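Example record

The entry below shows one chain as it appears in the dataset: sequence first, then structure tokens.
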Amino acid sequence: MLVDAERKLLRVLYNYYRRHNVIPTMGDLERFTGRNMNSVRESLTELESLNYARNLCIPRVFLFV
């Protein structure tokens, strides 16, 4: 089960991609979630480990499952 921070990040990733057809930058993710880069990276890693997304460690390349 996702914690609130991970759920919010997943929602931001999904909505941003649907609207702009590109993935958000780390700066965008920080701004939209209100969290610092390390927290965003931790959440991205957790989303990847839970198979909600893949290849999140590669900058600007998010592939949704």
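Notes for this example: The helical segments are 4-20, 26-33, 37-49. The chain has a mean pLDDT of 84.
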